[in-house]
Amino acid sequence: MQKRLLLGHPQLAITIGRLCQQLIEKHQNFDNTVLLGLQPRGIYLAERIKERLQELTNTSIQLGYLDATFYRDDFRRRDSPVRANETKIDFLIEEKKVILIDDVFYTGRTVRAALDAMHAFGRPKKVELMVLVKRRYSSHLPIFPDYIGKEVNTLESQKVLVEWKHQKGVEEDNVWLINKID
């Protein structure tokens, strides 16, 4: 397995800061805006975004975790049972502006499932999508992120891996492009 660094710690911090600035330009006071991190890996980016936004705006911002496992179109097609993650949304999203946050945008199927799962918590006024990395040329559905940290040309055989320093065995935040060697 070969891997190439796409974003290292300093670039990743700058990218998160830029994404926050874009949100501030569009949402200004965040009175009617909430963040939903997509389980399992989007929650780490969502936490970083919330933390940075609160530093920049001196405003409290609501954050929830959304699991779309049982809404996926491939849920029953897998060989082994899928383990769901925790959904933790302790606020209403009815008539709110919702920003869905995930680490990597690949085919769009996870986002489609998340949109279905989100409606169990109310009907939002508006939904936007933020991703740290968007893989080009891989979308299966007509879904496109509103906020993109980095776009990357990838092959089907490649994987994008986002590592956060608080994860076990990880010393620094990094984003890798991994080539699978047969």
Structural key phrases:
182 residues; alpha/beta; Rossmann fold; 25% helix; globular
Can you put this structure into words, describing what you see?
The chain has 182 residues and is α/β, with parallel strands linked by helices. The chain has one domain (10-71, 85-152): Rossmann fold (3-Layer(aba) Sandwich). 25% of the residues lie in helices and 31% in strands. It has 3 helices and 8 strands, in the order E-H-E-H-E-E-H-E-E-E-E. It has helices at residues 9-27, 42-57, 109-118, and strands at 2-7, 33-38, 62-66, 97-105, 126-136, 147-153, 158-163, 174-179. It has a 5-stranded parallel sheet. A 3-stranded antiparallel sheet has the order 1-8-7. Helix 1 crosses helix 2 (42-57). The model has no long low-confidence stretch (mean pLDDT 92).
Give the percentage of residues in beta strands: 25-35%
The secondary-structure element order is EHEHEEHEEEE
CATH level 1 name? Alpha Beta
**Average residue pLDDT:** 92
The largest sheet, given as strand count, sense and whether it forms a barrel, is: 5 strands, parallel
Oligomeric nature of the chains: single chain
